[in-house]
Amino acid sequence: MAVxxxxxxxxxxxxxxxxxxxxxxxxxxxxxxxxxxxxxxxGRRSGNAFAKGRSDVKSSGSKLWRQKGTGRARVxxxxxxxxxxxxxxxxxxxxxxxxxxxxxxxxxxxxxVLSDKARSDQLTVVNEFTLPEIKTRDFVGVMNRFDVxxxxxxxxxxxxxxxxxxxxxxxxxxxxxxxxxxxxxxxYDHLFLDPPAIEKIQxxxxx
Length: 207
What we know:
The protein has a six-stranded mixed β-sheet with strand order 2-1-3-6-4-5. It has helices spanning 21-24, 30-44, 103-119, 136-146, 160-166, 182-187, 195-205; strands at 2-7, 13-19, 123-126, 151-155, 172-176, 190-193. The chain folds into two domains: 2-46 and 97-205, Ribosomal Protein L4, Chain: A (3-Layer(aba) Sandwich), CATH 3.40.1370; 50-93, no CATH class. It contains seven helices and six strands; from the N terminus they run E-E-H-H-H-E-H-E-H-E-H-E-H. It is an alpha/beta fold and 207 residues long. Helices cover 34% and strands 15% of the residues. Helix 4 (136-146) crosses helix 5.
């Protein structure tokens, strides 16, 4: 098992913690990560784009003028796509973009990203991420002590003071370990975990 240092909010080492190799020391397969990220982003798309076709436009169905004898080109009804106010030819229609990714593949991708963070020294374990009061300035001060940008903070239990103090900081995201996902792990350069979160993550991801 790998051993990582545990820090307090002053960036001082206070203890050590063992990480399970089944979660934090697995090989990375880029094609698996790609499949999961694409599936996750597709799931966020609403698929509600819609344009009225020829049959959806409210208009008379009669010919605008007779077929022959006028010297003009023959024409159909007013809903024709070539006329102003007519329907859209081959316009978008509601659809589902969802790509179903197996749960085993999602868990495997999470293990890969966590392993990559641990190997590249982008993982920091904090013993307790509790702020004495709700203040954005105090939270930014903590982040400056660790000298990181684009950080994802994952906690075992939701912390109200931490959540509210970080809301106005655009380069930090705070989430509960139940919402951990591959896209956010890849989006943010650095990952902060507390021991309760690590325990729950390992329990959920160990095969």
